[in-house]
Amino acid sequence: MNAVPGAQAPRRVLLRILAAGALLSSLGGCSSFGDISGAVAGVATGALTANPALGAGVAIGVSAAADAAGKAFFRHWHEAEQDSIAAVIGTLEPDRLERWEIRHPLPYGNAHGWLRVTRVIDTPLARCKEALFSVDDDAARRRAWFLTTACEQGGRWKWAAAEPAVPRWGNLQ
Predict the structure, then answer these.
(1) Strand order in the sheet with 156-159
(2) Which of 4, 111, 113, 144 is the most buried (most CB within 10 A)?
(3) Residue 118 domain-assigned?
(4) Are 17 and 89 in a shared domain?
(5) 87 shares its domain with 153
């Protein structure tokens, strides 16, 4: 078995590029993960195939896919938080203070605070409750208060407040 001289060089280059990309993506944070992933995949593809156009195409595709996956993940994450708060709102009568919390499967972004229903909005179309809720930051010893509305929907309470000014809505604002 004779090895072709220099055949291992592209693999070493690829491994170095992937290692550098993994390090950079761990340092870059969530917002740049798609860009870094795309760049690493594009450079690696371009290095292996010696075709920069193919590398650019792979970079754009991987970046778009990573961004879409991240946005879908965080939409689900925020929906779980909102459903947790709405469930507590549904159990409370006005002016009663109750604790709420969310524990995610990954130990990141867990939150808690207090909740108080301020009024019940009972109409022929829907039964809703307006509530004040806090998000407590224990490390900074801060508590931020917010106002929201939750409505009963199919036997469950769901978050009813729209958030068009929140950056995570992107182009849908």
Answers:
(1) 97-102, 111-122, 127-137, 142-153, 156-159
(2) 113
(3) yes
(4) no
(5) yes
Q: Which residue's entry shows tokens 């896919």?
A: 65
Q: 150: Cβ–Cβ under 8 A, 6 or more apart, which residues?
A: 85, 86, 89, 90, 128, 129, 131, 157, 158, 159, 160
**3-class DSSP string for the chain:** CCCCCCCCHHHHHHHHHHHHHHHHHHHHCHHHHHHHHHHHHHHHHHHHHCCHHHHHHHHHHHHHHHHHHHHHHHHHHHHHHHHHHHHHHHHCCCCCEEEEEECCCCCCCCEEEEEEEEEEEECCCCEEEEEEEEEEECCCCEEEEEEEEEEEECCEEEECCCCCCCHHHHHHC
Q: Are 169 and 163 in contact (CB under 8 A)?
A: yes
pLDDT tens digits along 93-128: 999 999 998 887 777 778 889 999 999 999 898 899
Kindly report the pTM of this predicted structure: 0.59
